[in-house]
Amino acid sequence: MQHSLVTGASRGIGRAIAVALSERGDRVAVHYGSDQDAARQTLDLLHGEGHMLVDGDLSDPAIAQRAVDEVLASFGRIDVLVNNAAIAPSPETSHAIDAADYATWNHVWERMLDIDLRAPANMTFLVARSLMDRGLPGAIVNVGSRGAFRGEPEFPAYGAAKAGLHAMGQSLAVALAPHGIAVTSVAPGFVGTDRQQQKLAGPQGDGIRDQSPFGRVATPEEVADAVVYLSSPRSQWASGAILDLNGASHLRS
Ligand SMILES: NC(=O)c1ccc[n+]([C@@H]2O[C@H](COP(=O)([O-])OP(=O)(O)OC[C@H]3O[C@@H](n4cnc5c(N)ncnc54)[C@H](OP(=O)(O)O)[C@@H]3O)[C@@H](O)[C@H]2O)c1
Fold first, then answer.
1. Is 13 in the pocket of ligand 1 (CB under 6 A)?
2. How far apart (Å, rounded) are the C-alpha atoms in residues 39 and 52?
3. Does domain 3-245 correspond to CATH entry 3.40.50.720?
């Protein structure tokens, strides 16, 4: 049985990943930032026994360490880390260069790089070192974004953080391979999580669906299925990969 830690699993894609990993038979640590009720709902959806909750704002390195320590104390080891937590594009985080003031621009850049890039870097450090200390193999999967390749004109810090996350995953795939640890990323396009339903139901909805020639957006479960594969010991040879999950809405060479 694998022991897995999924960050940002109180809702959305993280919740779907936690459920899918539990269906595989993993014991799952459901991490959340602040919404304990939602995280408990995720816990209730999991299959099997022995799962746990762990909280904390991962932009604080000490809190990230405390979260990993709590999971290690309870599970004994973490075989799989899924770096899913992030602050995503929203009206609150919009910082278009031709509209935002300088203070907003700086604030959003700092926060997005802290949460969407530095936090996964710290979580990767902590979990990878715990695996090395125990001489165990493992897998780290980063939830990146199509925006790293397609551009995020209104949210450049988000695009940059996700591009950095993909690049970090590739560097660490090389560094961690001698330790038997695989590192991969998924790069989803638009995903129809609860948070996105209002946008999909509104005037922009058709345009978003038409980004893909399939005429729809992804389900959280489609992203979760890919993470199940990439976090399995059988996918070690995919280490270093960035898997596009965008319904052919953006092709890159
Ligand atoms: N949805 C999409 O269309 C889409 C597309 C491409 C990529 N992605 C990526 O997929 C991942 C999940 O997206 P989503 O739409 O499911 O996200 P979401 O619904 O906004 O959920 C974000 C999760 O991250 C946690 N979180 C946020 N800030 C945090 C912090 N500072 N410290 C710890 N946890 C924090 C939240 O916890 P609390 O709510 O408990 O605070 C929540 O569990 C993200 O990496 C996102 O960039 C999403």
1. yes
2. 10
3. yes
